[in-house]
Amino acid sequence: MTGTKEYTNGEVTIVWNPEACIHSGICVKGLPKVFRPDMRPWITIGGAQTDEIINQVVRCPSGALSYYMNASVDESTVVEEAKVEVLSNGPLLVHGTIKVIDLDGSAEMKSKTTAFCRCGASGNKPYCDGSHVKTKFKG
Fold it and tell me: Tell me, which fold does domain 5-69 have in CATH?
């Protein structure tokens, strides 16, 4: 991924993909000692314990935030159950690994959390780009 930035505390590394960010503010509201958009760098990974950071990162609705453990892990043995969550006045979140097949038949694997547009206004369909905020989507 180009344009991504990584922040580590030695135990866990947060990966931020600014192009995927929908600026929902969930990270900032959930862990303001780590996620501080008024500061540079905006992620202060030493502001919380590793488990708190991971718990907040997995709540990112766009998948712009992800993480990996710095210790070697055999990811082929990790099985995560997919779940779907409807955000009030926002996107449909799919947590877990899924295969998304586009209208042209191309397929893409998504892992962690993927945000799908419910308002119909996204310029990045089927994914959410935050347009629900501008259109004042209710649902």
Answer: Alpha-Beta Plaits (3.30.70)
